[in-house]
Write a structure and sequence with these properties.
Layout: E1 5-8, E2 15-25, E3 38-46, E4 51-59, E5 65-72, E6 82-85, E7 92-97, H1 103-107, E8 111-117, E9 125-131, H2 142-148
Antiparallel strand pairs: 1-2, 2-3, 2-9, 3-4, 4-7, 5-6, 5-8, 8-9
């Protein structure tokens, strides 16, 4: 994965902002959960403001949501503590103000979304928050690369 850091000029001069994503499903739970539920999340990390803005959606839960959190700081397949509560329902939209000391762990992908239900109180679906994959644009397409060598 390639870092997706960008510089934003409007609003906060010189702010460094990173785009992170999460694919959320039962297979990432510890232990894995057989569920048709799935979801996704987009996260904008502003390292100057020490904030994570999030938009998380999901559907298909077997159980009724009882709680949802961002957990940290650990890698995939490892359970760890709650670092930020999430609002109920889908979508979950908000901002997390994090401590400067936690920034390196957040940027290292050591946080995850966990949706808890009465079907699986420990979590029905989970998704690690990682750098978004970068997809080629017209400027980086193979056709453009070939024209450089003509």
């Amino acid at each position: 994965l390639v870092a997706a850091g960008i510089i934003i000029g409007a609003g906060t001069a010189g702010a460094t902002v990173y785009a992170y994503c999460a694919t959320i499903d039962g297979l990432q739970e510890t232990p894995p959960v057989a569920t048709p539920a799935s979801g996704s999340g987009t996260f904008t990390i502003d390292t100057d403001a020490n904030t994570v803005s999030y938009n998380i959606t999901y559907g298909g839960l077997i159980g009724t949501e009882t709680a949802a959190h961002i957990h940290g700081y650990c890698g995939p397949g490892v359970p760890c503590g709650v670092v930020h509560p999430l609002p109920p329902g889908s979508p979950k939209i908000g901002v997390w103000d994090y401590a400067e000391a936690d920034e390196a762990s957040i940027l290292a992908g050591l946080t995850y979304v966990n949706i808890h239900t009465d079907f699986r109180p420990g979590g029905e679906i989970r998704g690690q928050i990682i750098e978004c994959p970068v997809t080629p644009t017209d400027e980086a397409s193979w056709g453009r690369v070939k024209t450089l060598f003509r």
